[in-house]
Amino acid sequence: MNRTTFFAYVRKAPFGGRLTTSQVAGLNAILDYWDASKLTDVRWLAYILATPFHETGGKMQPVEENLNYTTAAQIRKTWPVRFRDEAAAKPYVRNPQKLANLVYGGRMGNRAPNDGWTYRGRGLAQQTGRLMYAKFGEEANPELALDLKTSVANMFKGMIEGLYTAHALREYFNDTANDPVGARAVINGDKRTKGALVAGYYKNFLDAINAASEAEKVGLIPADVKVEDAKPDDVPAHKSKSLWAMITGFGGAGGFSLFDAMSNGSTLLGAINNPWALLAVLSLAVGGGVFAWLVMSGRLQILHGKAVS
Fold this sequence. Notes:
The chain is mainly alpha-helical. It has helices spanning 3-12, 21-37, 42-55, 72-78, 86-89, 96-104, 115-118, 130-135, 148-161, 191-218, 241-248, 258-263, 265-270, 275-297; strands spanning 63-64, 122-123, 234-236, 301-303.
């Protein structure tokens, strides 16, 4: 598979024109696992990719289920059977642990009073419940589900072997079946409300996979693919060549270099006899130091707009 083509295609859909470094890392982890698996039905890969796109809200990184609801209406909408009205849901507003223990307690293998919270949804496919964590060998350490490589392996195993719901990919994608809507049952029982939505993501990923496979076969990327479109939009500042050029050449047009000023600081300060000017210079120095620290530590990012397609 030609990954330049793949990323250029998924940038457009389902990612809506923008890709981040973490999204690319998550996608690459899934593609790497697929390549190593020697599986051949690309429909499986497309649906595996569509699943974390939906479950993580497009982040493509393992996430922890957010149960910190801010209104009773939101809680009741999510669990209409468990809450007869908003008054019943109100005690659980902004109380995620209490909510988890109510809605997940006593089922999915949960038996201890705090199991609902301990075994809440985590990972790329949002594995939930003590029993599910035990299937993946993580009952004693549920936080393992937040490791990217572990989560990718869990997702492949769970969707292929039917560990999430007893339904497996082979039931929906085989020689006689092609049912991306019904395949939602592999992960969750909400096919009626979410099946078509996830199937749409599946179609986006399948188009990208097919285009990338053809590009690899012929040895050429499609005419509508630009290499820039395959690159993430957010670049850590300490890796930005353009930013370092700006720093090292700061004020270059006026014959001034930041590093020259730093090396000749004693001469510069000695020449200043106005206290306000001295304060201004010191403020610039402190600000420059903070800026340099942010860059060196990687805490500052340079955000590029999406490439024009």
